Amino acid sequence: MQNKKARKAPKGIAILGMLTIVLGAISLVSHINLDYNRYRDSLEKIGQGEISSQISPNQIKTINTISLLFSGFLLFSGIGIIYHKEKARKALVYFSAVIVAAFLLAAIVQPSSIVFLFPQFLFFSIIILYFTNRDTKKIFAEKKKGKNNNR
């Protein structure tokens, strides 16, 4: 009888999905407001002034475009997580692994950036741990099976 009842999804899925959407929205706002002078000023505030002198306006445009892509990805994957889409879970886990690897590389190359990047490292590490958990994977797989059985 318990097998027939739908398993209630843990609140962690909704919370992490919403946080992913919020992070995507913040990134989108950052994309909209980013220009060359603001970028240089922000780098100098976090102690990366030597990098700001090496970056051209064209590189800022490229960074801005990448920021837009990441924003869209985070928004869509966050929505997919809330709706328990398996593809969104997998995509977010792989994306998070890339972000964590980039953090580790940045920590080696530019140790002073650790303070600035640590919250992102922590968030994406939690994403990896939570969404690769066996029970969480089952919830997404059950949702996918339920969808396929209704066809």
The general outline is elongated
Major sheet, described briefly?
none
Q: Give the SSE string.
A: HHHHHHH
Give unreliable regions as ranges. Answer: 1-5
Question: Roughly how many Å is the radius of gyration?
Answer: 19 Å
Number of helices: 7
Percent range of helical residues: over 70%
| Average pLDDT taken over every residue | 82
Q: What proportion of the residues form beta strands (DSSP E)? A: under 5%
Got a strand count?
A: 0
Structural class: mainly alpha
| Alpha-carbon distance between the two ends | 23 Å
Give a quick precis of the structure.
With 151 residues, the chain is mainly alpha-helical. It contains seven helices and no strands.
How would you describe the overall organization of this protein?
80% of the residues lie in helices and 0% in strands. The protein has helices at 11-33, 36-45, 49-52, 57-82, 86-109, 114-131, 134-149. Helix 1 packs antiparallel against helix 4. The chain is elongated.
